[in-house]
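Hi R.,

Quick one: here's the II family cellulose-binding protein sequence you asked about.
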Amino acid sequence: MELDISTPALLFPAITLLLLAYTNRFLALATLIRGLHSEYQKNNDLKLVVDQINNLRKRLNLVRRMQAMGVLSFLLTVACMIALFQKSHIIANYLFGASLVSLLISLTFSLIEIQISTRALNIELSDMEDAR
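And here's the predicted structure, written out as tokens:
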């Protein structure tokens, strides 16, 4: 396959939007953690709070990995475009492939984080169901 400059350029808007979404997830987690901290200081139900803390810690680590792999994908795409400008098509193909693999890993981390997030919501729902 012959790679031209427009192919990796297609990833720019996708990766940028993906990083924006990851940043929003990080900010949402930060808000949850701050809220949980104040709840922890005044709540007696420590098991629920500890479960949520463990859940948030896992999610925070996943978001960090998602962002790192997304940024790596972006950097590899830029390096691919530089290689194309330098007429190094073989190197550009490898860089573009590495960029796609990095993006795939980032999306996989995102999927795992979404599943953990769903479990966190189930913990909240079970707490409300137990109160009835």
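Residues 6-127 form one domain.

Cheers,
M.
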